[in-house]
What we know:
Layout: E1 8-9, E2 11-13, E3 16-19, E4 22-25, E5 37-38, E6 43-46, E7 49-53, E8 61-68, E9 71-78, E10 81-88, E11 94-97, E12 106-108, E13 111-114, E14 117-120
Antiparallel strand pairs: 1-8, 2-3, 3-4, 4-6, 5-8, 6-7, 8-9, 9-10, 10-11, 12-13, 13-14
Amino acid sequence: MASACDLVPFQIAGDSGKAGPITIGLGEPDNVAHPTAWQGPLTISTASTPTCTVSDAVSIIERPIVSARGVLFVQTYSGSTHFVYAVDASTCAVIWRSDGFAGTAIFGTNTVVVGAKTTPLDQACHPE
């Protein structure tokens, strides 16, 4: 049996964050002293890959940001609609986007819950 997708939250300080071997840059914060959102662009680097930049579609980034097995799950918003993007940490490619929802995503073992929809994660921690 494959091990679970244990999603690890990023520890964010200022305009950057770290989880395991992955470091992210979030761009300009909405409040320097106590940021709750960042403008982007989202940049990603790992110990084994150079820094790359994620699509401009992944902007106005907010917490939570989590990762498992080289996949980042990033919550964003536009107006009152939120989205979660799954991003490959080694290439910065967006591999999935949730439907729009209200509220905050819930990241569980092997699942992402956005609004009323639960999306299972496969063995590689990609949304099914």
